[in-house]
Design a protein that fits this description.
With 266 residues, the protein is mainly α. The protein contains twelve helices and no strands. The protein has one domain: MetI-like (MetI-like fold). The protein is globular, with a radius of gyration of 26 Å.
Length: 266
Amino acid sequence: MTPQLAEAWKRHTGPRRIINFFLSGFILAAFIISLRNIEIIPEFLKDTPEQMADLFKRMWPIDWKFFQYYVIKAIFETINIATLGTMLTLIVTFPLALMASNSIIKSQAVRMIPKFIFVASRSVNSLIWALFYVAVFGPGALAGVMAITSRSIGFVGKLLSEALEQVNRNQIEAVTSVGANPVSIFLKGYWPQIKPSFISISLLRWDINIRETAVLGLVGAGGIGLLLESAIDIFKWRAVAAILVAILAVVLIAEFLVTRLRKKII
């Protein structure tokens, strides 16, 4: 490379460097403001290692009798809540995803209705949904199922509607050209193309719901989180350790099952 070319080459243009400078300054300022607003107390940080060590000592040995008599039942309830919530989500979301897809519905006004539902679902955290349904139905598994469903609709609906919009139009036109009715067009044209995405999205959401359901019990929405909150409130740290081990085991097993099922089915 000649000296002239070496001098001419620059990683970013002048306007780009200016933008990067101000963007970096904004990020740094936001970080400093956030750090000051969270009000970290240095005195509390000094004895954090000692407090953590003391907590782990109280958790050991794990209370396996508590695990046997209480945790296993709560784990099954957690899995049931996540599974029922996922199934209800698929039932509700599938027709909404069809309505939101521009490859099926040409009216933008009609498509805006399910898209608004998807955005509203995703914009509210599952814990907020759980608090709402606990207020409506009272504490228990029903509130958990409804919270999982309400939160999952936005996730599944968005991904499924996008999968419908990315189908190969040639296959749809081929089925339509032979005079197939709308049901046959969907079953022979759309479904074979979106089936892998549908299965993948469903399994992924079920895996996510397993994790979220373990937390919803902290606000009274059933599952193992409710048991965890009770154990923490009465300082039964050995029982807390048993619950945490169970949650970790369930999450790992769910991850393994989802991965294996996706490989076999898709």
